[in-house]
Specification:
Largest sheet: 3 strands, mixed
CATH topology of the largest domain: Tetracycline Repressor, domain 2
Structural class: mainly alpha
Strand content: 5-15%
Shape: globular
CATH superfamily of the largest domain: SLC41 divalent cation transporters, integral membrane domain
Number of helices: 23
Strand order of the largest sheet: 1-2-3
Distance between the termini: 84 Å
Helix content: 55-70%
Mean pLDDT: 86
CATH class of the largest domain: Mainly Alpha
């Protein structure tokens, strides 16, 4: 009964670790300069929760909290922070506190922490590491950004094929350098080529005399050190991997990537697609007004150009609009419906490309499907808006004009929502990059041209 109560209560106790009361308690301790109270308040929090707290409070409160925390600062918090806040905190940390904070981090976390820093800040971090860790981090930083080499951790638990389960257990118990989290024992030959893996679960469930060669799974996947990180996330997601060895150009083991790092990449890729579709850069909550305004200005300038193009189409039919004023009321409906339909298709297409579900083998079927969906929806909305417009303005021809324009623009939206990201992908660009702007421009221009052109031909 007692154990059941604990299990039932645990999620509730952990669900609100960064509540308003917790934040106020921490800030009160900071304001009072009470080091022990601060440690007591921070102790039950996960590093990610503390990072969230640091990102939410003001810069002066951050500085005071970090100063009071001192040498007890958890280095894992630094690796969880947004880039802007992290660089600000690292710049203000004394060398002694910085050294204490990064000493216990694994190499992949140190690489993540330093890869986007300026050289002076990067050097401060590297000086704080012991010689072996510094060499490992420097080697990882030599690999291409967003590659498996940058993502991997260098602490790898390996064993030769001739070892037994007992040999492996004794080895792991005797070593102090083992990573905090690992899932597989990687079996290697004398040249450090991976030949198999043994999961820790299978290792611990076997007798001490059992040879690793009899336990190892030879059907495993390795990643090349130069593979893009989106390939890494794709492989982990598709094949349900927990960890995967990373090899160099000669097939020798140089590191390992675990599922937490791969899923973080997958989350970053998804977030990046969302930002690009919205025309938003790498904004963070801690960014200043000037930085955000500057990053958004470029995309808004592009949108201004496309809006001028759509306006130029409208200007071609000024006389038609003057003759039939109702057109000015109705034409935004055609453009808006086409833009929304195109955005729906675009979102599906971008995600299909990102997850590699949209390939050359099914591309034609996907394009045809989206065009047909556009046709069906176009017919439905054409009937609806055509009847409403015809009845409201007592003009059946006007209803027919907007109905036909609606059908055409919905079909065009379906095709544009697929073809634009495919074209960008074929050109080597991110399929989410500017796709929304292109699709909206196409539907606006076609919608206005079709609606006003048909009106000029049928109503005048």
């Amino acid at each position: 009964m007692g154990m059941t109560d604990e299990i039932e209560q645990e999620p509730e106790a952990q669900a609100d670790t960064l509540s308003r009361e917790t934040v106020e308690t921490i800030l009160d301790a900071v304001e009072a300069g009470d080091h022990d109270a601060l440690l007591d308040a921070l102790e039950p929090l996960h590093a990610a929760d503390i990072a969230d707290l640091l990102e939410q409070i003001s810069r002066s409160e951050r500085r005071a909290l970090i100063t009071l925390w001192g040498v007890k600062l958890d280095g894992a918090v630094l690796s969880e922070l947004e880039e802007g806040v992290r660089d600000e905190i690292v710049a203000e940390l004394p060398d002694a506190i910085l050294a204490a904070a990064v000493q216990d981090l694994e190499t992949d976390d140190v690489v993540y922490l330093t890869e986007d820093m300026d050289e002076p800040q990067q050097e401060r971090i590297l000086r704080a590491l012991d010689a072996a860790d510094r060499v490992a981090v420097e080697q990882s930083l030599q690999y291409e950004e967003d590659s498996a080499g940058r993502l991997m951790q260098r602490e790898v638990v390996v064993a030769p094929e001739h070892w037994t389960v007992g040999d492996s257990i004794d080895f792991m118990r005797a070593e102090e350098w083992l990573p905090d989290s690992f899932y597989d024992l990687i079996i290697v030959d004398p040249q450090m080529h991976p030949t198999g893996i043994v999961s820790l679960g299978r290792l611990m469930g076997s007798g001490r005399a059992t040879k690793l060669k009899d336990l190892m799974n030879e059907d495993f996947r390795t990643l090349r050190v130069d593979q893009p990180q989106d390939d890494v996330a794709y492989v982990f997601n598709k094949y349900h991997l927990i960890s995967a060895p990373v090899v160099d150009e000669n097939g020798r083991l140089v590191g390992v990537i675990t599922i937490d790092d791969a899923m973080e990449v997958l989350e970053e890729e998804t977030e990046q697609d969302m930002r690009l579709l919205a025309g938003v850069g790498d904004e963070e909550l801690s960014d200043g007004v000037a930085d955000i305004a500057r990053s958004r200005f470029v995309w808004l300038t592009v949108n201004l150009g496309t809006a001028i193009l759509a306006s130029a189409v409208i200007a071609m039919f000024t006389s038609t609009i003057e003759a039939v004023v109702a057109l000015a009321v109705l034409m935004p409906i055609v453009a808006s419906m086409g833009g929304n339909a195109g955005t729906q298709t675009l979102t599906v297409a971008v995600r299909a490309l990102a997850t590699r579900n949209l390939t050359s083998s099914n591309m034609g079927r996907f394009i045809g499907r989206e065009g047909f969906v556009g046709l069906i929806n176009g017919l439905g909305f054409a009937l609806l808006i055509g009847l409403l417009a015809g009845l409201f303005y007592a003009d059946a021809t006007l209803g027919l004009v907007i109905g036909v324009a609606m059908i055409g623009n919905m079909v065009v939206a379906g095709f544009a929502g697929v073809l634009v990201p495919i074209a960008l992908d074929r050109l080597g660009a991110d399929p989410a990059l500017a796709s929304g702007t292109f699709v909206t421009t196409i539907t606006d221009v076609f919608g206005f041209f079709a609606f006003l052109g048909l009106a000029g031909a049928m109503l005048l």
